[in-house]
Every structure is written in C-alpha cells, then in structure tokens.
Amino acid sequence: MKKVLITGASRGIGAACAKAFAEKGCSLYLNYNIHEDRAQALRENLKDTCGVDSALYKCDISDSSQVKKMFSEIGAVDVLVNNAGISQQKLFTDITDEDWRRMTGVNLDGVFYCSREASREMIRKKSGSIINISSMWGQVGASCEVHYSAAKAGVIGLTKALAKELGPSNIRVNCIAPGVIDTDMMSGFDNETKNSLIDETPLLRLGTPEDIAKAVVFLADENSFITGQVLGVNGGIII
C-alpha cells in the first residue's frame, strides 16, 4: 500500500486528490494549515466512502521547522503531492514585502521544504514520485499577479532541476500547471469574468478539481518513464 502525502488537502484540488488516491487504496497523510473542520470532514468522508482511515497533519509548510516535525511523525512516503498554495490579485506597485514573502513562502518555499524532507527517504529507498502543482500563470505570467506568477514559475524550475538530480535514484518529479479551475480561489470572480474565461477556453468550460486529481494520479502511479515534465491541464486556454 503506497503512502501518499498531500499538502493543502482540506479542500479543492487537494481534497479531490485525496479522494482519487483513496479510491486506489493508498495510505493517506493529509496536510492542512487553517481549515481543520474541512480536513476532519474529508477524513470522515474518505472513511465512509472508501474505507480509508487517513491521518491529518496541521502544518504551515512555509515554516521549515514545522515541515521537519511533520515528516518526523509521518516517516517515509512513496508519493508527495505539493498542492498547498495561496493566491492574491494586486497591482505590482501595491505588493508589500509581506505579500511577497507570504506568497513565495507558501507557493515556493513550501514545495522546497517538503520535497527536501521527502526526498531523503526516497533516495535511500531508490523509489518515489513527487508531483508539484504550479499554474498556467507560472508558464506565461498574469497581470496583477506578479508575485503569484513568479512563485509558480519557480515551482516549474524546481521541478525540472530536481528531476535531473533525483532521476538516477529512480525518483520521478513532475509538475501540473492547471488552467482556470473552479475552486475557492475563484470566489472573488464575478459571473461576467468567469464567463469570459470560459469563452477563452477552447473546451468552453472551467476545469474541476477532479480534472487535476486524475492527472496527479496518472503521474504518480501509471507511467514510470515520465519525469521533469510540466503537464498543462487547462482546457486549451494555453497551448
């Protein structure tokens, strides 16, 4: 039974990934930071629907000491899904030092800290898979989301470099760059903006967390000859 750690698992893409891995009978370790009620509800749901008793870990992944503590309790994992992330829309000149530090802390530093801890045991076992969740804005950049775009672009660079370094140890590192996904991060968008984004997407719909989860499971388990790749799950909005 594979051990899978998913960061930011209490909702959205993370929760969908948890369900997808639970359906495959994996042993789940679910990280959250703020939404304990949602994490508990997810755990109960997975127990009822899939018979999987997952473990919950509260941890701010932007804090390396908390990440180390979490991994000391979990131990080795077979699959790490670096999903936790935050977003913010602001004019570039209005981005504060704290905005920048928080954005890069969660979206980039957290990926580094978790991957560093997970890879230690993966290297020892000569086996493992790391899947990082970036964004299409990490590929092409977004106006009024410079700090978000920069952090997500960093995730892509980290993925490619780490794949080269860990490949000889039979550890695969891949990245998913979601397009416009209908999650809580879209709550600030009005219907007109959402409809405009749908019109710009060749498949004429928003993505779902389940769309991303299917891609994560594929990269984690279903092809052992894919590494260092950035998979755009975006409905064709960026080609």
Task: Report what the structure shows.
With 239 residues, the protein is α/β, with parallel strands linked by helices. It has one domain: NAD(P)-binding Rossmann-like Domain (Rossmann fold), CATH 3.40.50.720. Helix content is 49%, strand content 15%. The chain has 8 helices and 7 strands; from the N terminus they run βαβαβαβαβααβααβ. It has helices at 12-22, 36-50, 64-74, 97-125, 136-140, 146-166, 191-200, 209-222, and strands spanning 3-6, 27-32, 55-58, 79-82, 128-133, 171-178, 230-233. Strands 3-2-1-4-5-6-7 form a 7-stranded parallel β-sheet, with helices on both faces. Strand 4 (79-82), helix 4 and strand 5 form a beta-alpha-beta unit. Helix 1 (12-22) packs parallel to helix 2, helix 1 crosses helix 8 (209-222) and helix 3 (64-74) packs parallel to helix 4 (97-125).
What is this entry, summarized?
The chain has 8 helices and 7 strands. Helix 1 runs parallel beside helix 2, helix 3 packs parallel to helix 4 and helix 4 runs parallel beside helix 6.
What keywords describe this structure?
globular; 239 residues; Rossmann fold; 7-stranded parallel β-sheet; alpha/beta; 8 helices; 49% helix
Summarize the SSE layout with pairings.
Elements: E1 3-6, H1 12-22, E2 27-32, H2 36-50, E3 55-58, H3 64-74, E4 79-82, H4 97-125, E5 128-133, H5 136-140, H6 146-166, E6 171-178, H7 191-200, H8 209-222, E7 230-233
Parallel strand pairs: 1-2, 1-4, 2-3, 4-5, 5-6, 6-7
The overall pLDDT average reads 97
Strand content: 15-25%
Radius of gyration in whole Å, from Cα? 17 Å
Q: Runs with pLDDT <50, length 5+?
A: none
- Distance between the first and last residues' Cα: 37 Å
Remind me, CATH topology?
Answer: Rossmann fold
Overall geometric form: globular
The CATH architecture would be 3-Layer(aba) Sandwich
Quickly give the structural class: alpha/beta
